[in-house]
Amino acid sequence: MTLLPGWAAPQRARAAVSSPNSKQFFVYIGTYTGAKSKGIHVARFDSASGTPAPPELAAETPNPSFLAIHPNQKFLYAANEVGEFGGKKSGAVSAFVIDSHTGRLAALNQQPSGGDGPCHIAVDRTGKSVLVANYGGGSVESLPIKPDGSLDAPTTFIQHHGSSVDPKRQEGPHAHFITTDAANRFALACDLGLDKVLVYKFDPANSSLVANDPPAASIPPGSGPRHLAFHPGGRFAYVINEMQCTMTALSYDSERGELKGLQTLSTLPEGESPKPNFSTAEVEAHPAGKFLYGSNRGHDTIVAFGIDETTGKLTRIENVSTQGRTPRSFGIDPTGQFLLVANQDSDNVVVFRIDQKTGHLTATGNSIQVGTPVCVKFVPAEKAR
């Protein structure tokens, strides 16, 4: 196989084992590599107290800008956001096995992402496929997962086509996100360049993607849909729009794979308009289904919304400073007690406590210092030996 610079040689590792009652987690942090970071970092996190341990380098790998965890929590996959791999214009997807005691990652293998600048990655619900979205290439791809966690050669590659109203940002397709629905029957892909969420029929048995009918849902022109989060109940989806700093709520028909718009709200405080340096990044629903969170870059806040679980519509609760600069991604810990936000330009991952009744966020004073952090994922941890 062709290895990216800085790729660590495989080592034997004890695979992670899921513990549903665990209060100890590994927090995996994806980064942009350079002088401040060499790859994926890991820190232990105590969800009883909200206290993180100092981080360490889990694996050296270039620009692991988004991470995904296998459902069995034994394997981790990274989108290597690079422009060339194997002598071709393509990024890479890397597979690792998780050591359940130390949190360190042992390299399994890599495959091409099919397009340059892969920026999002997901594992399907059965753990049989990895799905990747290529921003630069404007494409999506699926790769089968072998029994040992390594990646097989890609089976489906789909090039998006078209453009939208902004000639600078939307001159062509820019796939920014892909995931499967709860039933694992459909895959949904946000394309910032097209102002659409494209829907594909997904077959995990052969890792195939086929255009659905209807093939897409349109987002208001010039919005730039970036990421999507499903409500835990599965009937609603929420798209955060990078270019206009908005959140779009949609209903979701899981039988047809069809999205219909319900509402679009600003992610900024009432009365504030987006400035040229403002954009959004991440969206995530609280596991209890009552709250939705999104990150505002430039404004450097997390917006909290209340969710009407009957209609799916949103009501803004607050905007809270992220205690840093350029909040890229964030993660809600599996207990639902804490939100950890990765501030890309201030080199810190800040811990917030979530009020379970109101959804309000309160900074705990705890943080993890990591260079250019851009993604946060959790895995249950076993006790260190």
Descriptive overview:
The protein is mainly beta and 385 residues long. 0% of the residues lie in helices and 51% in strands. The protein has no helices and 29 strands. Strands 1, 2, 3, 4 and 29 form a five-stranded antiparallel β-sheet that branches. It is globular. Residues 5-20 have low confidence and may be disordered.
Helix-strand layout with pairing:
Layout: E1 24-31, E2 39-46, E3 51-52, E4 56-60, E5 64-69, E6 75-80, E7 92-98, E8 105-112, E9 118-123, E10 129-134, E11 139-144, E12 156-159, E13 175-180, E14 186-191, E15 196-203, E16 208-218, E17 225-230, E18 236-241, E19 246-253, E20 258-266, E21 279-285, E22 291-297, E23 301-307, E24 314-321, E25 327-332, E26 338-343, E27 348-354, E28 361-369, E29 373-380
Antiparallel strand pairs: 1-2, 1-29, 2-3, 2-4, 5-6, 6-7, 7-8, 9-10, 10-11, 11-12, 13-14, 14-15, 15-16, 17-18, 18-19, 19-20, 21-22, 22-23, 23-24, 25-26, 26-27, 27-28
What is the quaternary state of this protein?
single chain
Q: Please trace the helix and strand order, writing H or E for each element.
A: EEEEEEEEEEEEEEEEEEEEEEEEEEEEE
The helical percent reads under 10%
- By DSSP (H or I, 4+ residues per run), the number of helices equals 0
Task: Give the low-confidence spans.
Answer: 5-20
What class would the helix/strand composition place it in? mainly beta
Percent of residues in beta strands: over 45%
Q: Number of DSSP strands?
A: 29
Give a short account of the largest sheet: 5 strands, antiparallel
User: Quick check: average pLDDT?
Assistant: 94
Distance linking N and C termini: 34 Å
Radius of gyration: 19 Å
3D shape: globular
